[in-house]
Structures are given as structure tokens and as C-alpha cells.
Amino acid sequence: MSLIQRRQFLIGAGSLLAAPRVLAQSAPIHRVAFLSGGRQSDSTIFLKAFLEALNTAGYREGRNLELDARYADYSTERALRLAAEIAARKPAVIVTTGSGIAPVIGLSPPQPVVFIHSGNPVDAGFADSFARPGRNATGISLMALDLIVKRMELLKQFRPKMRRVAFLASPEHAGQKRELAASRAAAQQLGLEVLYHEARTPAELASALPLVVAGKPDGALLFSDALMVGQRQELAGFFLQHKIPSAAGWSAFPDSGHLFSYGPERQAVWRRAAHFVDQIIKGARPADLPIELPTIFELVVNQRTAAAMNLTLSQAILARADRLVE
User: Fold this and answer.
1) Which of 18, 205, 244, 283 is a plausible cystine mate for 199, CB 3.0–4.6 Å?
2) For the whole model, what pTM was predicted?
3) For the chain, what percent of residues have pLDDT higher than 90?
4) Cβ count within 10 A of residue 201
């Protein structure tokens, strides 16, 4: 073999040896879209937990994962427009929350969807059943009706002489009727009178608040729907002004000034959402993946609010609290 032929042979052999490394570096990019019905600030810590779980499953941004995150800022019109923009990019799966859910589930042709829904997805028309969604969407429902009794019990622990409780909710929230019925049953079990107030928009909610005060409730229970979440800071100021202890299901409420929350630990929920995404990327159909309920719950108490309302935090509550807002 001549010197020139030997060089050509070595170059060719080197290319063959390098080929597997080149192929390994050109792994497919999985495009995952995220559409939140709320603000970016509402989702920051949850999106971080979601990405950490995807990393554990082997997905890395910039290597084999591209995340397209968008926020509707509580605007239905904006959510519809963003859903159409997302669909044009043909993601492998769309993860969505709040008012983003309906627009992405309604896309034509259908796109694979993983939702984190505060209400009942069957009542909302997003799925045929929890066990077998049967359509293009699956995910996690945060609506755990059995937790309502515990919220009511905790509210009464903060105000033992409570006799009257106000409920605030949006009637447009999927599952609202179930939640209201469960809340009324819990109140009756504790011997409490119920004052129910509903609103569909921030303007309607503002008009309802004077009626809340007029009813002289000893406490308030807020349903964790999109309207209450979006208006939680304004509501916290209102309840603090009138010294009405308020409770809800998500930690965003006490973080915004409400007295306490008892409900799903949402970072754990978002980590679980990554499991659904991984399964769909690997070929599973949303129609065949059962909708899940949360399995980890937390009690979050705002100490500053309790002090401002002259409420005593018992040792039982302090021992039970998973987190205190100071």
C-alpha cells in the first residue's frame, strides 16, 4: 500500500469511527409548548419544577428539548390567539392551565394536550371520564372535594365562634356546582350558615364585595377558580380591611395575604405533569392516559395576616402547617 493510499484509508476509518458520535449529537428535538391562562409570575416556580422533572426523564433544553412558553394574562381572547400560534409550530405536546385549556383542546386538527385543571375536566367537556379521557387531552385535576371539609374545620379552628361563612366563586368554573354542594354539606356538618356570592368578571366581583360585608360573615372560603386566583391580591386587601379570615385551596392565596390555604402541593403536581409529557412523546395517546388527582397536600398559613386580625395560632395549627408566611 502506497503512502497516499494509507493516508486515505486512515482518514476513511477515522470517519467511520466518528460517525456514531455525530449521530449521537444529532438527537431529535422535542418541541413542548406551554400556554398559561394567567401571568408569567404565577407560573415561574411551577414551570421550574416541571422542567426539573423533564430533566430527570432525560430532556434538556438546548439539546433535545425546546420549550415554547406563553401567557394569556387572564385574557380569553389572548389565549385563543396564542393557542393558534402554538399550533402553527406543531409541538409534540401542549401543556396548559387555566383559560388556556379550552383553546388548545379545541384546536383543529387536534393536538396532544396535558392540562393542570383547577376544576372537573369531565364537567368542562375536556374528557369522557377520569379513567379513560377518550379524546386528545389528559392530565391532572386539582379539584379534591374531600379537602373542603378540612378547610372548613381549619377555618373554625382559627375562629372557634364562627357561625356564618361566605363562599365566593365563579359560576363559569367547571365543577363549581359540585364544589358548592360539597362546601354547603361541610358547612352544615359544622353547623355554619352559608352566604353564597358569585361573580363572572372582576367588575361583578367588585360589586359583590359590599354584599359580603353586609352579611357579616365570620370567615370566607374562596373557590380556586381563575377569577379568584386573578383577583387574589385585591381580595386579600379587602378581607384584611374588614378582618374576615379567608381560606382557599392554593398557596398563592396566603402568599398574597389571605389567612391560609389547604390543598394540593402544586410543585408536585407540575412534576407529575412531566410524566404525562414523557409518555406522550414516547408514543402514548392522551385518550388512554387516566386523569389523575393530587397525592401531596399542604397547609400554608400567613402569620402576618393572623396577627393583623388578632387571631391566635394554636400549637395544633403551628405543628400541622407545612409553611408559614412571615
Assistant:
1) 205
2) 0.84
3) 81
4) 12
